[in-house]
Write a sequence for this structure.
């Protein structure tokens, strides 16, 4: 049985034995009764990375192979989103290349589907002087996505949060963009725990006022809105939004703390999913969603609920650094040959955080190749001065 030495918060060391069982893979991509987008990460290329903070090199082979892994498990992909380090390592030129490549690969894979993040991140918030600047930035990115044959996820805008002075400013900007799109768009409500620069989005820090504003935008443009992803890490607020959406407009949970119960629903309504944690726990989420589609709630709960404590650890405050935990698990599971990230983001978390993720991943049966995971964890801990027993 595989074992290694792991540190604890109190400074002690533990001889830890792995007990998890890898989740089996489906022979063919399963069918779900929920729309399930996995927001996917990018893989850096440290051997070509001359400027990891300014212009990081991307390992396109490994990055695209991971998308094929997600498609094989039945997921749609939310491409070039914050999980791919948009605004935190992946700039717009890199996102454009990622979108081009993913759309091209999807055309070669039967049943593969994706939607692509379109925002304003090429416009520095401090350079935005007016709403027209924000509109022009959105037009460029949404136009690029649709010009490449893709569908857009309209990402929340730091520039808009900076220059907007009222809820009407949000209505104006979103109305202008949605009025131009060729295809239906998924809106994106990202809380300030994910990005502090988005505080007061929709024109208010009061949830009820913000909710009224976003619902008015959706109602005015309902023929252009497929749904809205809400990432506030508060299940009551998501249910409040879900209960008030117009018929035909979908709620996509982005709640990486409470996704299991929100996807299952309350017997009347449920949430679809657009989640960063699905990148890290894809085999488990795939098996659970396939069981849910067969009304097998026992299997759904038994498989997905153990992943929730793991997700809460990965997304703990400062939440915006969750990408480090996602990529850490991709490395442990053999999807990339190293644990480095664009902008050196792997340094955003420390040894104790990674040790906790390792334990929780094992308990949730998320470690696909336990021996490899243990070897890689040992090599990482050695860099932190944690010696392993002979």
């Amino acid at each position: 049985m595989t074992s290694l030495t792991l540190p604890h918060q109190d400074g002690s060391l533990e001889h830890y034995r792995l007990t998890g069982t890898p989740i089996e893979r489906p022979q063919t991509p399963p069918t779900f009764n929920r729309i399930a987008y996995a927001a996917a990460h990018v893989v850096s290329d440290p051997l070509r990375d001359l400027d990891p903070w300014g212009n990081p090199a991307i390992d396109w082979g490994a990055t695209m192979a991971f998308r094929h892994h997600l498609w094989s498990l039945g997921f749609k992909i939310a491409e070039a989103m914050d999980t791919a380090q948009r605004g935190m390592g992946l700039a717009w030129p890199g996102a454009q290349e990622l979108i081009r490549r993913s759309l091209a690969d999807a055309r070669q894979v039967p049943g593969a589907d994706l939607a692509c993040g379109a925002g304003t991140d090429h416009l520095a918030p401090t350079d935005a002087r007016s709403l027209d600047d924000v509109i022009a930035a959105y037009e460029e990115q949404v136009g690029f996505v649709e010009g490449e044959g893709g569908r857009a996820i309209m990402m929340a805008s730091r520039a808009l949060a900076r220059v907007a002075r009222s809820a009407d400013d949000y209505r104006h900007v979103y109305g202008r963009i949605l009025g131009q799109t060729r295809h239906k768009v998924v809106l994106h409500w990202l809380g300030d725990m994910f990005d502090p620069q988005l505080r007061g989005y929709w024109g208010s820090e009061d949830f009820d006022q913000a909710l009224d504003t976003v619902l008015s935008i959706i109602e005015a443009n309902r023929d252009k809105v497929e749904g809205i992803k809400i990432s506030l890490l508060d299940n009551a607020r998501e249910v409040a939004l879900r209960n008030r959406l117009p018929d035909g407009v979908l709620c996509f949970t982005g709640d990486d703390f409470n996704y299991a119960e929100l996807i299952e629903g309350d017997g009347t309504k449920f949430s679809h999913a657009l989640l960063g944690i699905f990148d890290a726990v894809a085999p488990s989420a795939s098996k659970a969603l396939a069981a849910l589609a067969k009304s097998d709630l026992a299997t759904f709960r038994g498989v997905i609920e153990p992943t929730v404590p793991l997700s809460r650890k990965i997304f703990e405050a400062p939440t915006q650094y969750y990408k480090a935990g996602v990529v850490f698990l991709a490395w442990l599971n053999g999807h990339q040959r190293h644990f480095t990230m664009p902008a050196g983001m792997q340094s955003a978390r420390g040894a104790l955080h990674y040790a906790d993720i390792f334990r929780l991943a094992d308990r949730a049966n998320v470690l696909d190749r336990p021996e490899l995971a243990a070897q890689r964890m040992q090599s990482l801990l050695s860099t932190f001065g944690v010696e392993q027993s002979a």
In short: The chain has 15 helices and ten strands. Residues 131-147 form the longest helix (17 residues). The chain has one domain: 33-345. The first strand starts at residue 3 and ends at 7.
